[in-house]
């Protein structure tokens, strides 16, 4: 599971931050085409962190192991 936050320095930048997060999800999806670690990945909705710079993103990746 991947959760991505785009940086939004103010409320007017929230939409752009979510667009950046969406692009990161697409990049992770492309990575899943060649890397088996990301082949069965799930992605959350594009999020934002208010107060962070626009050139800053956060990516939380959670790995689940089935036995």
What does this protein structure show overall?
It contains 1 helix and 3 strands, in the order βαββ. With 67 residues, the chain is an alpha+beta fold. The longest helix is centred in the middle third of the chain and has 18 residues. The chain is elongated.
Question: What is this structure's SSE topology?
Answer:
Blueprint: E1 2-8, H1 14-31, E2 47-50, E3 57-61
Parallel strand pairs: 1-2
Antiparallel strand pairs: 1-3
Mean pLDDT: 94
Q: Measured on Cα atoms, how large is the radius of gyration?
A: 13 Å
Helix segment count?
1
Query: What sort of overall outline do the alpha carbons produce when their principal axes are compared?
Result: elongated
> Which strand order does the major sheet show?
2-1-3
Oligomer: single chain
**Count of extended strands:** 3
Please sum up the structure shown.
The chain is built from 1 helix and 3 strands, in the order βαββ.
Keywords:
67 residues; 3 strands; elongated; 24% strand; alpha+beta
